[in-house]
């Protein structure tokens, strides 16, 4: 069976590794990457995702996917949300945990939004995946972003305490990719 080639535009090597592991685990897709750190507008997660993918399609000059990850704290009305990268860079994982020290509710949602553009000038289509959990003092190796402070409801472990396969079976990224894959498989059969 021939596989469909997809260009994933990202500046993040950890994301690329997880996307390849999830999408290339079964025949159907081959992922190539282009490394660009695309400027991200402020707005809702959907506005940020659409703008990022439109710019990526212009840069690539063809079909592509992009991904935007948000970490939403329930007590903070879903902030930091799409601004998590800056918050993590400035506060670190300890600081992010302390942000919630004044609140009983440590609940959080990891939200992944993939955007697919068929090429420059076409409107991106969005695919969202969510993992519910809570923010805890860091546990596990600090190998990727805020993995050590996000404890998933599914198994009570932080993302950092999980093996790659365990994380990739329940993650926000996996749940969004299931939807993207179904969409692309539909396209290739029509
Ligand atoms: O612990 C984590 N587990 C994850 O599963 C995960 N996915 C993303 N992140 C981090 O959250 C911010 C998102 O920002 P982001 O979506 O703009 O990513 P990015 O700028 O690194 O890459 P890209 O925009 O070039 O694709 C960045 O700090 C990422 O490192 C994660 N941290
Ligand atoms: Mg980014």
From TrEMBL:
Name listed for the protein in its UniProt record: Inosine triphosphate pyrophosphatase
Family, per entry: Belongs to the HAM1 NTPase family.
Keyword set includes Cytoplasm: yes
Gene Ontology molecular function: any one: ITP diphosphatase activity
Cofactor(s) required for function per UniProt: Mg(2+); Mn(2+)
GO CC, alphabetical: cytoplasm; nucleus
Role summary: Pyrophosphatase that hydrolyzes the non-canonical purine nucleotides inosine triphosphate (ITP), deoxyinosine triphosphate (dITP) as well as 2'-deoxy-N-6-hydroxylaminopurine triphosphate (dHAPTP) and xanthosine 5'-triphosphate (XTP) to their respective monophosphate derivatives. The enzyme does not distinguish between the deoxy- and ribose forms. Probably excludes non-canonical purines from RNA and DNA precursor pools, thus preventing their incorporation into RNA and DNA and avoiding chromosomal lesions.
Subunit description: Homodimer.
Source taxon at top rank: Eukaryota
Annotated residues for binding of Mg(2+): 40, 68
Compartments, as annotated in UniProt: Cytoplasm; Nucleus
Reactions catalysed according to its record: N(6)-hydroxy-dATP + H2O = N(6)-hydroxy-dAMP + diphosphate + H(+); XTP + H2O = XMP + diphosphate + H(+); dITP + H2O = dIMP + diphosphate + H(+); ITP + H2O = IMP + diphosphate + H(+)
CDD domains in alphabetical order: HAM1
Binding-site list for ITP: 10-15, 52, 68-69, 144-147, 167, 172-173
Known EC number: 3.6.1.66
Main location: cytoplasm
Entry keywords, A to Z: Cytoplasm, Hydrolase, Magnesium, Manganese, Metal-binding, Nucleotide metabolism, Nucleotide-binding, Nucleus
Keyword Metal-binding: yes
GO biological process, one term: deoxyribonucleoside triphosphate catabolic process
The record's free-text note on cofactor binding: Binds 1 divalent metal cation per subunit; can use either Mg(2+) or Mn(2+).
């Amino acid at each position: 069976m021939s596989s469909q080639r997809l260009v994933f535009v990202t500046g993040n090597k950890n994301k690329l590794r997880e996307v390849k592991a999830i999408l290339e685990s079964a025949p159907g897709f081959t992922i190539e990457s282009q490394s660009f750190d695309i400027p991200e507008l402020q707005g809702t997660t959907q506005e940020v995702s659409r703008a990022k993918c439109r710019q990526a399609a212009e840069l690539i000059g063809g079909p592509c996917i992009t991904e935007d990850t948000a970490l939403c704290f329930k007590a903070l009305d879903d902030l930091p949300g799409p601004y998590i990268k800056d918050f993590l860079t400035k506060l670190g994982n300890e600081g992010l945990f302390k942000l919630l020290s004044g609140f009983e509710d440590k609940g959080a949602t990891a939200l992944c939004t993939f955007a697919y553009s068929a090429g420059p000038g076409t409107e991106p289509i969005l695919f969202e995946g969510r993992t519910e959990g809570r923010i805890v003092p860091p546990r596990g190796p600090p190998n990727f972003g805020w993995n050590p402070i996000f404890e998933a409801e599914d198994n009570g472990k932080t993302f950092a305490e999980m093996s790659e396969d365990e994380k990739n079976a329940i993650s926000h990224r996996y749940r969004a990719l299931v939807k993207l894959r179904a969409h692309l498989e539909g396209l290739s059969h029509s």
